[in-house]
Amino acid sequence: MAETIKRIPVKTFADVVTARRQALDLSLAMGFPMPEATKIAVVVSELGRNIMLYAGEGTITLLPNEAERYFKLIAQDQGPGIEDIDLALTEHYSTSGGLGLGLSGSKRMMDEFEVWSVVGVGTRITAVRYLH
Ligand SMILES: Nc1ncnc2c1ncn2[C@@H]1O[C@H](COP(=O)(O)OP(=O)(O)O)[C@@H](O)[C@H]1O
Ligand SMILES: [Mg+2]
After folding, report:
1. Which of 51, 42, 52 is nearest to 21 (CA)?
2. If 100 and its partner were Cys, which of 47, 74, 92, 110 is the partner (CB 3.0–4.6 Å)?
3. Which of 44, 50, 73 maximizes ligand 1 atoms within 8 Å of its Cβ, making it the mutation to test the pocket?
4. Which pLDDT belongs to residue 1?
C-alpha cells in the first residue's frame, strides 16, 4: 500500500499553520486519538516556527505510515545550524528571548527525536510517534 508523503515548503508563518493542520488531519486519519494527534501537530508547529525564526525558510515532511503504525516528521533547513545541541534541548534555553520550550517540549511529546545540525550548514530534526 502506498503511503502518503507530504513535503511542505516553509517560507512564511502561514506555511507553518498549513503544515500543522496537515499533520493533525493525517494523524487523525491513521487512527491517532485527538490528544495524540494534537501533540504531533504542536511539534510540527514548534519546529516550523523554529525554521522561520532561525533559518528563514526550510521544509517539513510528513510521513504517516499506517502499515507500520507510526507517524514520522522531518523538519529541515539550511540556516545557521545549532552550535550546542544539548544546550538547545535544555528547557528554557533560548537565543531569541523565547520560552525555550520548543525543542525540549517536542522531544518529550515524541517517541523518537533526533537532532542533526552543523553550524553553517543547517539543521534536520527527525521525530517519530508510534500508534500504541
Ligand atoms: N532550526 C534551527 N536553526 C538554528 N537554531 C535553532 C533551530 N531550532 C532551534 N534553534 C536554537 O535552539 C534554541 C531553542 O529552541 P526552542 O526550544 O524552540 O526555543 P525558542 O524557539 O523559544 O528559543 C533556539 O533559541 C535556537 O537558538
Ligand atoms: Mg522555538
Report:
1. 42
2. 92
3. 50
4. 41
Instruction: Note the pLDDT of residue 4.
Output: 86
Query: In sequence order, what are the residues at sequence separation of 6 or more whose Cβ sits closer than 8 angstroms to the Cβ of residue 19?
Result: 8, 10, 44, 45, 48, 60, 62
Q: For the structural domain made of 6-130, what CATH number should be given?
A: 3.30.565.10
Query: Closest ligand 1 atom to the C-alpha of 125?
Result: 1
Domain residues of the chain, as ranges?
Answer: 6-130
Regions of the chain short of the pLDDT cut 50: 1-2
Residue 50 near residue 104, CB atoms below 8 Å: no
Alpha carbon nearest to ligand 1 atom 5, residue = 82
> What does pTM read for this prediction?
0.97
**CB-based neighbours (< 5 A) of ligand 2, an ion:** 50, 102
